[in-house]
Amino acid sequence: MKLTFSKEEMENYRDTHADSLATVGYTQKVKLLRTQLPTYFLLIIDNQQITMIEQDWKLKEKGISVIHLSDINTLTVDRIFFQHRVKIKTTDKVYNLDVPPLNFGFKEYQNNLINRLKEISNNL
C-alpha cells in the first residue's frame, strides 16, 4: 500500500489540470476519529482556481472539485503541533484539510503549498 504520492505523480496531475507554474501539494481531510480511513486530496493552485483531486486511502482518484478564487469567502492556515490546518470557506461549502508534517513526503512541494495558501489568505 502506498503511503504518499510520488513526485512524478504530483507533477503529472499538475500538468494535466494546470500549467507548469501552478503549485501542487497534498493534504488530507480532517478526521474526527482516529479510526477513520484518511481521504487524501491533491491541491493544485493556479492564478484562477484551486483544483482538489480527491483520492481514497489507496491513492486512487475518486473525484475532482474546483474552487474559483473569487468564490472563497475566507481561507485560514493555522499551525497545529507539527502540521498545518487549512480551512477554506466558500459560499456553499467548508473544506477542512490537514497538511501533513513537512518531514514526510516532499518538503519543497508542501512548503510551496502552505506559502501559496497563506498568500491567497492575505489577499482576500
SSE layout:
Blueprint lengths: L6 H11 L5 E7 L10 E6 L3 E7 L5 E8 L3 E9 L2 E8 L3 E6 L7 H17 L1
Antiparallel strand pairs: 1-2, 1-7, 2-3, 3-4, 5-6, 6-7
Give the helix level as a range of percent. Answer: 10-25%
Full CATH superfamily name: Pleckstrin-homology domain (PH domain)/Phosphotyrosine-binding domain (PTB)
End-to-end distance: 39 Å
Q: How much is the average pLDDT? A: 88
Q: What's the CATH first level?
A: Mainly Beta
Report the uncertain regions.
none
Number of helices: 2
Shape: globular
Note the run of SSEs as H and E.
HEEEEEEEH
Instruction: State the CATH architecture.
Output: Roll
Q: Predict the CATH topology.
A: PH-domain like
Largest sheet: 7 strands, antiparallel
Structural class: alpha+beta
Total domain modules:
1
Radius of gyration: 13 Å
Q: What's the arrangement of strands in the largest beta sheet?
A: 4-3-2-1-7-6-5
Q: Roughly what fraction of the amino acids lie in strands?
A: 35-45%
Number of strands: 7
Protein name: YokE-like PH domain-containing protein
Organism: Fundicoccus ignavus
Describe this structure in words.
- With 124 residues, the chain is an alpha+beta fold.
- The chain has one domain (7-123): Pleckstrin-homology domain (PH domain)/Phosphotyrosine-binding domain (PTB) (PH-domain like), CATH 2.30.29.30.
- The protein contains 2 helices and 7 strands; from the N terminus they run αβββββββα.
- Strands 4-3-2-1-7-6-5 form a 7-stranded antiparallel sheet.
- A hairpin with a 5-residue loop joins strand 3 and strand 4 (61-68).
- The model has no long low-confidence stretch (mean pLDDT 88).
